[in-house]
Write a structure and sequence with these properties.
Blueprint lengths: L1 H13 L3 H8 L5 H24 L4 E2 L2 E2 L2 H33 L6 H27 L1 H27 L3 H25 L3 H7 L3
Antiparallel strand pairs: 1-2
Helix pairs in contact: 1-2, 1-5, 2-5, 2-6, 3-4, 3-5, 4-5, 4-7, 5-6, 6-7
Length: 201
Amino acid sequence: MYIGKSLMNGLKILGFDKEAISDVAREKSLEEIFLSTLFFNYMIVLIVFFVSLVFGGVTINGRDLNENVFFGLLMIYPFVYNLIVYGVYALFGGVSELLQKAKTVKPLISVGFHVGIVYAIVLAVVGFAFAIDVMYGLFLFVVFLIYFLLTMFLAISTLYKYSFNQTLIILFIPILIFVVIVLLLGSFVDMSIIGKLLFLN
């Protein structure tokens, strides 16, 4: 099954297997892995949906989530997740291409979708941790971000054969762009509105 193959490849990449990175980068079509990741995420959403029904809803730090909003977000999550994976890896690949025109974005996007199927499980675990304890969930999320940057660094250096310094530049430019976007959103968007929509109390 293609999902099983993608999952194994993703685990190998997250195990810092350079050969696996090179192998998945040569994949000709991204449609199948895109659909596999989408289907896998919908399976996770289905499990979360039934678990939340069994326990009578989801609470975070004693606060009940608005079920209508929560289930609505669950429905769009798999597709949005795929778009985010595509956008993130395309951004890092685009910066790599800017540094040297001979490099292309597609190999890194292919790697992104293969690790994305594993990241889907990791993020589900992080989300579960947030439901238990926010600080614990936040700790796991920070660990996930650090690990993501390490694997991204390895993927860029393996695929594009850049030096340590060049790879660091490619790694930090998108991070800088993301931080600027978050600061701008924080300046113009009232974040308390999100809390009011998500929580009942």
